[in-house]
Each structure stands twice: as structure tokens, then as C-alpha cells.
Amino acid sequence: MEKYIEAFIHAFTGTLNWIWKCIVFDMPWYTNYFWGLILISLIVWVLEILFPWRKNQAIFRKDFWLDFFYMFFNFFLFSIVISGFYKVFAVFFAHIGITANSITIINISEWNIWLQLLIFFIVLDFVQWCTHILLHRFSFLWNFHKVHHSVKEMGFAAHLRYHWMENILYKPLKTFGVMILGGFEPEQAYMVHFLAITIGHFNHSNVKITWGPLKYIFNNPVMHLYHHTYTLPAGKYGVNFGISLSLWDYIFKTDYIPEDNGVLELGFEGDENFPKDFIRQSLSGFKKN
After folding, report:
1. CA–CA distance from 225 to each of 4, 36, 54, 66, 254 (Å)?
2. How far apart are the first and last CA of the chain?
3. pLDDT tens profile 105-160
4. Does residue 272 carry a pLDDT above 90?
5. Please, which pLDDT band fits residue 185 given cuts at 50, 70 and 90?
6. Does residue 77 sit in helix, strand or coil?
7. Looking only at Cα atoms, what is the longest distance across the chain?
8. Nearest to 157 by CA among 51, 31, 43
9. Would you tell me how many other CB atoms lie within 10 Å of the CB of residue 63?
10. CA–CA separation, 86 vs 81, rounded Å?
């Protein structure tokens, strides 16, 4: 028991210390996730102001500050709280013989670093795409995912408005995705994480970008807006599940973009009764429908 308590405390304090070092610039600027998130957010927000897709949407759109709070809560505050529990589980699995090497499918640690990062990006995105489908497919998971779909006006900060339970689901599966690649996460992985944040912010922004022919590879605001549509095609429990890549939706026929004028109702059936504040939204997923 002592080793588990020690692991918990070490992970908790380590994460807290890491975030503080980010805030006070006590680390290389290119690995600073705190100020990196702020910089990416400001850039995308300025583009929303200069080139708005939905002209009648206010600069401080509906729930702007709620989404802003979610951004920092999910990305940093909850990371501090949950880090200790993840470490305890890692120690437990190591104790029973389940390690990164024990489930490795392919070891790419000797490959060219840029190819490693590309594979790392693709595998993590596919794992998240599959996880995203689960969030829509099963009602007990959808109850938590409703928080993200309660957005009624889309903007960059909506990217990180999601229930903290999604962290608990996504993190282990993403870790598993890394472990099957030989348990590696290269030092340069920060580039993959910043790229994913940037694409996610753009996907939720009030800017009309489709990337031209690359729309069949990368997700975009037009495609993702229809993921949040109130009215889904008949028989569908969701469309356009892509996180960074749209590729999976086109391969598995879950793509849906009937038009691109950006004028459509967002949300889900019954969302008029969904809580409007952080506390009640956080508790909503645990209540029986």
C-alpha cells in the first residue's frame, strides 16, 4: 500500500509542479502547454473576429466564459487531480506483469523521428475516433458527452468543453495506443499535441475553413459543425466523429456535409432542459435519465 500512496503523491505533486513551471516560464517555450494553449486560443479567436463565418454571432458568443473555464479546468486543473490515480493504476498493472513491452505490437523507436511522430499522430487520432463513437453509441457514455454537445453557438473554446469523465475514458485508451507502439512517446511529441490542439480549436471556431482537397484528410469547421447539429440524418446516432483527421469518417462512411452555409441549430433533443452551469453539468451525467 505504501508504494501506491507514494506513487500517487509523486504524480500529483509532479503534475502540479509541471503546470506551475509552465505558468512562470520555467521550461522551454516550445513545450509550454499553458501559454501555448493561450496563444493558440488568441490566434484562432482573432481570426474569428476578423473573418467570422456566422456574421450575426457575437464576439463573446453564448457561453463564451463557461467554455473558457472548461478549457483550463479540463486541460490543467483536472489533470492535477487525476494524475495520481493514473500513476497508481500504472504501478498496479506493472505489479501484475502488464507493461508497455508486454502489449507492444510494433516497435518504431528505431525509425526516423518524423515517421515516428506521424505514426504516433495517426494511431492516437484513430483511438480517439473510436472512443468518440463509443461516447455517442452507448447511452451511459452519451450522458456525459452531452456536456460537449450542449454548445448552442460554436467557437474555439467549445473544443475543450467536455465532462471530466471523458478524461477518465480517453486517457487510458490513448495510453494503450502509445503502448502498442513499443510504449514510446518521443521528446518531440509536444509537436503532435500542439497540432491536435490547433486543429481542434479551428474545428470548433467561427471561421469557414475546409483545407481544399485536404478536407478528406483533416477535419475542419464545416465538417465538425454538422457533428454538433441538432437534427441528425434518420437512423444515425452521430456523424463526422473525426478529431483531427476526417479520414476515418470517409473510410467508414460516417461523413455527412449536406451544405456549408453554417446556419443550423446545434445541440440535442431535450437540451432546453440541460443544466447551464459547470457544477450541474458536471453532476448531470450521473443522474438517471
Report:
1. 43, 25, 12, 19, 14
2. 38
3. 777 777 888 888 898 899 889 999 999 999 999 999 999 999 999 999 999 999 99
4. yes
5. low
6. helix
7. 59
8. 43
9. 20
10. 10
* Percent of the chain surpassing pLDDT 90: 60
User: Are 197 and 36 spatial neighbours (Cβ–Cβ below 8 Å)?
Assistant: yes
Query: The C-alpha cell of 11 is what?
Result: 504524480
Which residues 6+ apart lie within 8 Å of 182 measured at CB? 100, 101, 104, 106, 107, 108, 109
Place of cell 492516437: 124
Crossing angle of helices 190-203/113-137, nearest 10°?
A: 40
Q: Are 153 and 264 in contact (CB under 8 A)?
A: no
Alpha carbon distance 241, 72 (integer Å): 23
Residue 60 CB neighbours (<10 A): 10
Write the CB contacts of 102 (distance below 8 Å, at least 6 apart in sequence): none
Distances 181 to 58, 86, 116, 127, 175 between C-alpha atoms, Å:
44, 20, 9, 13, 10
Cα–Cα distance measured from residue 220 to residue 211, given in angstroms and rounded to the nearest whole number: 7
Single-letter amino acid, residue 218: F
Task: Note whether 141 and 193 are within 8 A (CB).
Answer: no
Paired strand residues for 245: 218
Q: How far is CA 246 from the centre of its chain?
A: 15
The pair phi, psi for residue 245, each rounded to 5°, is -105, 135
* 225 contacts 240 by C-beta, under 8 angstroms: no
Q: What is the DSSP string of 105-163?
A: S---TTS-HHHHHHHHHHHHHHHHHHHHHHHHHSHHHHHHHHHHHT-SS--GGGGG---
Q: Residue 97 and residue 153: Cα distance in Å, rounded?
A: 48
| pTM score, whole prediction | 0.91
Name 273's Cβ contacts closer than 8 Å, sequence gap at least 6: none
